[in-house]
Amino acid sequence: NFPDIIHSVDEKGRIVFTNRKAESLLGYTKQELLCMNIRQIYADEILEKLDKGFDHLKKSGDFAVESMLKAKDGTRIPVEIRSFSIYADDGQFIKTFSILRDIRPIKELQNSLVHAGRLAAVGEMAAGVAHDINNPLTVIMLTSEMISREMRREEVLDPAKQRTKCAAYVADTKRASQSIEKLVLHLRNFSRGVAEKREVLDIFTTITDALFMTQNKTTGSQVIAENCVPKGIHFTEGCPNQLEQVFVNLISNACDAMAGSPNRNLTIGISDFKRDEKEYWKCDVTDTGSGIPPGILNDIFAAFFTTKEKGKGTGLGLSISRGIIKEHAGDILVASEVGKGTTFSVLLLKRPPPQK
Questions:
Q1: Nearest-angstrom CA–CA distance, 334 and 245
Q2: Residue 118 DSSP code
Q3: For residue 23, what are the contacts with CB-CB under 8 A and spacing of at least 6?
Q4: For the segment 213-224, what is each residue's pLDDT rounded down to a tens digit?
Q5: What one-character DSSP code corresponds to residue 234?
Q6: Which of 21, 167, 207, 231 is 20 to 30 A distant from 309 in Cα terms?
């Protein structure tokens, strides 16, 4: 009746013990499971990691990791695994003892928090969005009126000149309409809560879109924003909207941090970074704000921690952002000096450009 899967496998990966939870969760009978190799109940894309993890477990004796099971009907089940090795008196490996917890409810909660963070960001930008839509709407209304006036003129001395004027007004109307369409489409995609497929993407595009989403805040805060990431060079793999959400949060926080600063410069740069033999792109979001006191530097990524006034911040932005980047096998680092500014560094795994 234990609520988690318990199983043991021998030195060749054959399942030699399992409990009722494994049967109910995976859809196999106990007899079927005891005739299977451990590789048969894991998702195909993690089999290489499974083999390496099993070899490591046999040598180290202890192993903890998140992984992905595959049920009999093909259902994918994210699990948290804690495994131990059992050895004979002479030190010879005998079998493993593993506990696997279904973490789908946790993943659903994480996804809900990410979606809530997106909606909070959209809400914060609502006033700016209204302003951004109002400007092109004004253009559309004015050009429409000018076209109507031209069409109502009783006497036309130069029809060709009139057509040229009207064509120019129509072009202005089209550009303004496209601007609104782009903004609405971007907001719809940004705020959607559906699961996203990962793809190879250009980091330049992600940052450019994030700056587009926050342009009213940067302008309203009198912040000079500079994107130093070149186009078509730096690629990673991930969910476009989620990564954009991270940079929207960081840019928005940077603007808030520079509210009382005489110089308000926001710079986004990129460089190579290596950690644990993995190659990353390090995207630095640097502001010239007030900086973060050393005493709270370790707390800023905690959920619901905020230094903003009541009602002006949820304390979820940085927590959600780091969670998203962790899900992308990366990390967010921070360096700050009081009175001089802060740099948040987003580590994203390097990927080759997509095949054309």
A1: 18
A2: H
A3: 29, 30, 33
A4: 787 788 888 999
A5: -
A6: 207
